[in-house]
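User: quick one
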Amino acid sequence: MITIKNLHASIGDKEILKGINLEIKAGEIHAIMGPNGSGKSTLASVLAGRQDYEITQGEVTFNGKNLLDLSPEDRAREGLFLAFQYPVEIPGVSNINFLKTALNEIRAYHGQEEMPAKDFLALVKEKQKLVELDGKLTNRSVNEGFSGGEKKRNEIFQMAMLNPKLAILDETDSGLDIDALRIVATGVNALKNKENAFVVITHYQRLLDYIVPDFVHILYNGKIVKSGGKELALELEAKGYDEIKSKFESLEK
Amino acid sequence: MIVEKSNTAQLIIDKISSTAGKVNFIDNDQLSKALLYLENKGIPNNKHEDYKYCNVDGVFKKEFKNIEQKLNTVTDVTKFKLENALTIVVVNGNYSESLSDKLILKGLQLTAFSSLENEEKRWIGSIANVESDAFIALNTAFSGNGFHLKIMDNEQLQMPIHILYVSSADSEALVNPRNVIELGKNAEATIIEEQICIGKGKVFTNFLSEKFVGENSKLTSYTFQNEGSNGFSVNTNQVTIARYGKYDNTTITFSGSLVRNNHNVVLAAQNCEAHLNGLFTTKNNQLVDNHTLMDHQMPNCESNELYKGIINDKSTGVFNGKIYVRKDAQKTNAYQSSKNILLSDDATINTKPQLEIYADDVKCSHGTSTGKIDEVAVFYLNARGIGKESAKKLLLNAFAQEVINKIEVDELKDKVLNLFENEL
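Assistant: Done. Structure below.
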């Protein structure tokens, strides 16, 4: 589905991604873990097309297309979805209008007609239930005045509505209590199928109890330094990042 | 430094005097004061503090060198009418009885200036001081045959009044529409004032309205400006509110090469309230200048202002909001906010709050913000598959909603929303 080869990215003079290699196939869930500042969110942002970063080397192929050549909106239309670590508040734009515009622009990109209003509302209702999002919130302005948990659930709600091929969850678990965590995980598990894939970026093993990954990668200092199965996350949880840090710091010296 | 006075005013006086009929509904005392004021002060240019960013003298010199007053007759305004409103039509400054609806509403009385009894003429110029501003003076000197609209005591009009100011000329012209709108006690009315410029020639409209909101009355007024590039205007609203009175105005400005609004509200008695809202979008070389004055003279009054501008291309927006809180005006609440989005690097906005407070127990605040479109929000929308243009539209729409939502007349609101979408 997506192949990342030797990806380097910088912000200003500072190189943050220093050669990422990753292959994700349909039907898989990958977890990316790592300490603060290791480049996890940068990777998510670069894939979604945020302009602040400069790609200095490498390539990314998404469904046979050169992802880095596509605008952020075309990446989304091709089926890439980023659940933001910090969802943006947009006063004055209703959640429902926002989703309708998004859905219909994605459909137009694929040569499909606009979704009839009735079907759209039925879809909203169905997906809202999935993430236990209060119906009132869908009529409010996008994320405005939402609690932290509501914002994160709204991201998963949007994901459910847009039905992406590859969803990247950027620390969706941060700031969530155990109930919200369960709801988010339930949403992801319900959406998971053989055709799509998920990348779950997290600091902690906690979310991975609910969303069980097929692969776990440890990102450190802009590189994937270790990959393994779900047991790698448990190992990290038990030992912390210190071992990895000291090991790789000494390697670099 | 002695600023050399421009001769624009004198040129205008000469040209208009030779074409206009004698104005016989404004008393001689006011007429001579007006002419004297113009002679002494001239048409303001950018050296005049109140017209710093709005050089009307320069505009006259550049765009109105050959005022010919070849004014057209207008015979049909059907397409401009709103369905659920009574229409009053003013053509090139003169009230047109034949184009206006029959004013069948109970409690409403309309009299053209030319038909006013001597006793009733006292209203003309009673609120707008002829010696306070060049454009009030200019209008007084050459006022068209406007009208006095009265809403009787205890009457609540069941339908909005839509006043259409149509200007049409084949070449450069100056028109001076004028009205007096008076609400008696315990009265309520909604008034929509719209300016349209339909001729081939450029028209400078120097509009003046005196509005009096009587005791415990409520006047909801809308100003809708979309004159196209032939339209140039200075619009003065001089408002006085009596005890427990309420005045709301929402001014929407789209096109028009020059639009200067002087909205002056005097909260002249206790417990009155005024709200001024504005939305303007500017393009090309347009200049839209909103000057407001909230004059709090008595205790326990409240005023609120919200102006939003979207400025594109090489255009210029101005918001200047003056609030006076006079010595007696204790317990005043006065708020003001001006927010602007610049869509191009060549666009300019000048905002200036001016608070002069002489009472000690008051709550006043003002805020202004100017920025570009929020790129973080644009990226969020892009990341959901929404393209650049749609994202911009969604965000600008959201920005404008706060003002557009103040419009309580559905027909007008829909019209504004549609036009706004096209403006973007």
